[in-house]
Amino acid sequence: MRLIATTQGPISIMTIRPSFLWGASTSAFQIEGAAHLDGRADSIWDVYLRAPGRVSHNDTAETACDHYHRYAEDVALMRDLGLNAYRFSIAWPRLLPQGRGAANEAGLAFYDRLIDALLAAEIEPWLCLYHWDLPQALEALGGWQNRDIVGWFADYAALVARRYGDRVKRFATFNEPCVFTLFGYGLGWHAPGIADGAALHKAIHHVNLSHGRAVDVLRRDVAGASIGAIHNRQPCYPASDSAEDAAAALRLAAYWNDAFPFPQAFACYPPELQDAVAPYIAPGDMAQIARPVDWFGLNHYSPHYIKAGSNLMGASFGAPPAAVPRSAIGWPVVPEAFRDTLLDIHSRFRLPIYVLENGTAANDTVDASGCIQDDGRIGYLKAYTTAMEQAIAAGADVRGYFVWSLLDNFEWGAGYSQRFGIVYVDRATQRRIPKASARWYSNMIAAHRVSDDPAGRHNRAEE
Ligand code: FCB
User: Fold this and answer.
1) Does the pLDDT value for residue 449 go beyond 70?
2) What is the whole-number distance in angstroms between the Cα of residue 180 and the centre of ligand 1?
3) Are 295 and 346 in contact (CB under 8 A)?
4) d(C-alpha 147, C-alpha 108), whole Å
5) What is the pLDDT of residue 17?
6) 3-class DSSP state for residue 231?
């Protein structure tokens, strides 16, 4: 490890590939706003949030960060920070208000503008097809519980591929399928608010099938496509020494970590899920799911501490031991778990890894001089990027790191109460102010660019 001096103090220079990507991630529902403008129809989240008490302060994402109108400013911010890549998602109900059938040209045109602005700023677009905002019209037909959704999703993927595939090459099928199926259909904590075992297991299988079909569509319709899925993977530690908690941790890990990567990579469900999913598996399904992909997308924040519980998995989320440090919002800060997760993914899946979300929320405030001194976030990002460096040094093939998130945004059930951005968003005025962490991140990227590429060129081709 070399150290390089910057105005922000020493930064480690990692033993990483010259083409390593430093980016930021967002999602459509969390930042776009314009929820009912230019033909966009309700997603399941718009509907879910209308019931009082489901989200902190009854916040809505009607305006969110108004990125729909401010995308040019946001792209300029990313360019100024020196980001190489930007991961965003497409709002399915903006392109296909009924989820299928007639496409909405105004919605399609928005992503044309965004993609063109990114390319003009030399920022590589990473397009995610699904970040949780299912068209409500499809939920009314059963949503992910209805096997027909596999065809609806394939048609949506084809629309996206044909419209943007001339300019976008990086495609993710799904963001965190374990979270939206488990929370949305199994536990009722997220949209559409269903808590039912059969609903969960149907949704798991149909999402896996939709992933495989979308991979085929993207390969067919986009020359040179680079395709993956984005999985949330965290170690599940037992919350105590009891045998019950140890067994619960294994059950939860099967749902959280393996329910999607296993069938997608190995054409089989983890043994803990096999019997529950079996009634929904038709001949040929497993081969359709396990289509070859180009990379493994990882979202990682902190490990889970699991205790035995009475829900359908017999497992619930417990507290970490008192000695484990926590972030401002109480999430455990355990960078070693990130390092170990990267090494585990490397040894199991043998794919290039892109970290497509990592970051932390804090109670950021603007100080008297107009600055946001988010030292806690800088500490987290330093510790986690150092852990990533250790994983790379130990052999993990990590090719990119995207911070969550570019902007303070709508954090699902927590509404606007948790600020995850490296750029502060003033809720009243929508003014963007880069936090100290944005400057830290920008300096680190610049330091790598100097060290990797003495001529100062950007070098972002995949070798
Ligand atoms: C992930 C989600 C993302 C955001 C972060 C904090 O699980 O993919 O949308 O909510 O957590």
Assistant:
1) yes
2) 10
3) no
4) 26
5) 75
6) strand
